[in-house]
């Protein structure tokens, strides 16, 4: 198992990370997802023999239209979470 931290290009309201978590957990090989809303990050644990980080990023990007950056485990992305939901 391997864990990577992903930073979505935007997390505007608390429902987006939960939606992304559900999508990620539906991908074969993804075992666990920890959402860190205030840090604008998701820690994704997956089986490297079943899927690569690039495939995870591609699948989630296609589903959500969001770009994902790989960051340091447990790291945050500058800017923090949005104060209001843009929806």
Low-confidence stretches: 78-87
Number of helices: 2
| Helical amount | 25-40%
Multimer state: single chain
Q: What fraction strand?
A: 25-35%
Q: Any guess at the CATH architecture?
A: 2-Layer Sandwich
- What does the radius of gyration come to? 12 Å
The outline comes out as: globular
Please tell me the total number of domains.
1
Task: Measure the end-to-end span.
Answer: 36 Å
SSE sequence, one letter per element: EHEEHE
Q: What summary fits the major beta sheet?
A: 4 strands, antiparallel
Find the count of extended strands (DSSP E, 2+ residues): 4
CATH topology: Alpha-Beta Plaits
CATH level-1 class = Alpha Beta
The order of strands across the largest sheet is 2-3-1-4
What class do helices, strands and sheet pairing give? Answer: alpha+beta
Q: Brief overview, please?
A:
This protein has helices at about 15-25, 55-65, and strands at about 1-10, 30-35, 40-45, 70. By secondary structure, the protein is an alpha+beta fold. The chain has a single domain (about 1-70), classed as Alpha-Beta Plaits.
